[in-house]
Amino acid sequence: MSLIDQLRPLQAFKDLSEKRLSWVAEHSEQVSLSVGEVLISEDEEVYYYQTLLDGQLAVVKTMEGQEIVAGHHQGGESFGEIQLLSGERTPVALRAVEPSRLSRLPLEAFEELMKDSVQFRKTVFSAMMRRVRGLESTMRQREKMAALGSLAAGLAHELNNPAAAMAGAATEFAGAAQRAYARIATFILAGGAHEDADRITAALPDSICSIKQFDSPTAAMKREDEIADWLAERAEDDPFALAADFAAGGWSVDDLKRVSETVDEDLLDPALRFAAADFEIRKLAHDMQRASSRINEIVSAVKSYSYMDQAAQQDVDIHDGIEDTLVILAHKLKTGPVVEKEFDRSLPKISVYGSELNQVWTNLIDNAIDALEGADVEAPCIRIVTRRENERLIVEVIDNGPGVPEEIKTRIFEPFFTQKPVGKGTGLGLDIAFRIVTHRHRGELSLDSKPGETRFIVCLPLNVAR
Predict the structure, then answer these.
(1) Fewer Cβ atoms within 10 Å of its own Cβ: the N or the C terminal residue of the chain?
(2) Quick one: which H or E segment has residue 38?
(3) Closest Cα to residue 77, out of 12, 161, 9?
(4) DSSP 265
(5) How far apart are CA 122 and CA 457, in angstroms?
(6) Residue 230 neighbours by CB distance under 10 Å
(7) What's the pLDDT score for residue 439?
(8) Please, what's the b/e burial string for 356-377 (b: 16 or more CB within 10 A of its CB; e: otherwise)?
(9) Which pLDDT belongs to residue 110?
């Protein structure tokens, strides 16, 4: 079959006259690709308008060090018009996934055809718009998945600590219970009565886990020595081992004195051992309760963050979403900047797409964290301010980082534009935030930046229902 016959039914050429179609065939050349062969590499200049006669090409984009297949060209499709018209290098690579044949029209012939044929121009521009929208949609989805992966990793990190604490306490609980049973039996055999046990329990330190967390090693050792000396004066067996147990629980000599005052001297040793076992059991139970509460807090924050089981649009307190976002990002803030909140709690609830607006807070706060990472700032800080301005609700996310250079301020909300190093982001976080605020909520998102203060300002109408 001649090239003219192959081109005639294709979308790009079907409205051309036979004379013009013959001209296209004369000025075109054909190429063949084997499986895996690259037609165009990423960031390469393009000199041809190409038509895939048969076969299939993968559209490949390298992101964060990985090759992502953003789409495919099937037999009959034409491409290359974006780069030919803009003069830009191709942002993707094209690789054959099956044996393929192409016809390609050089730049000069393409420009002449664009000039002489109105219908060809319409076809080219229509294809170009579809291609741009498709690539942008793929990259946005990739950005959302990357953000989801980052959040999932952070939540796993946050959940791991309380889960590990609960598992450790549960493991220790069996041994602690066994020791407690033995010490209770010893206490009873020594003549301890129910009333004695009640008095001992009442004399235990009031604060569970009362250990002084900020004790220096020297202070902790001093406290343990003081307890050992007190026990040794009363001829306790192995006072240093028992002293270690009491000191680890945060006990002081005064606590021991209160317990000793509840029983006769001949019951002191079994009473103290009973008291240590009782305290250990209560401490482990408290550790498990505290860990489970933390897990529940994180899960509740995630549920609130995503507005699970709720309609897409709700009346919400804007502060709840910000607080939930801070819980979600807690893993990045533990060793990062300090967060200061200046909230106007008198602000009314507003009707918004809650989960989408939480993406805005996530992107803005995460952007501030990244801006401060490695910055030469004495006291890295993020301030989150809420206030009312006439009939608008204002949320400001402010960091004291180096600021945004003047020459790129106008591009900061452009899709795919990023200051982050390769592998750190795709440049869609602020673009997504901008679209959610302006398109979905009829608000405004702006930037005010200078060295030492970068301020992202979200303005939402108090009535944003649509």
Answers:
(1) N
(2) strand 38-40
(3) 12
(4) G
(5) 41
(6) 19
(7) 85
(8) bbbbbbbbbbbbbbbbbeeeee
(9) 94
**How large a percentage of the chain has pLDDT more than 90?**
29
Condensed to tens digits (0 to 9), the pLDDT of residues 385-411 reads: 999 999 999 999 999 999 888 888 877
Q: Which residues pair with 48 in a beta bridge?
A: 106
Residue 339 has pLDDT above 50, yes or no: yes
- pLDDT tier for residue 55 given thresholds of 50, 70 and 90: very high
DSSP H helices, 28-106, are 81-86
Q: What does the pLDDT look like over 162-177, one tens digit per residue?
A: 777 778 778 888 788 8
Tokens 């507005």 found at: 307
Decide: residue 71, CB within 10 A, 0-12 exposed, 13-18 middle, 19+ buried.
middle
Residue 326 and residue 365 in contact, taking contact as beta carbons nearer than 8 Å: yes
Phi first, then psi: what are they for 391, rounded to 5°?
Answer: -100, 30
Q: What are the residues whose beta carbons fall under 8 Å from the beta carbon of 457, sequence distance 6 or more?
A: 394, 395, 396, 444, 445, 446, 447, 448
pLDDT at residue 456 greater than cutoff 60: yes
Neighbours of 50 (CB within 10 A): 25
CB atoms within 10 A of CB 189: 9
Alpha helices in 204-267 (DSSP H): 217-233, 239-248, 253-260
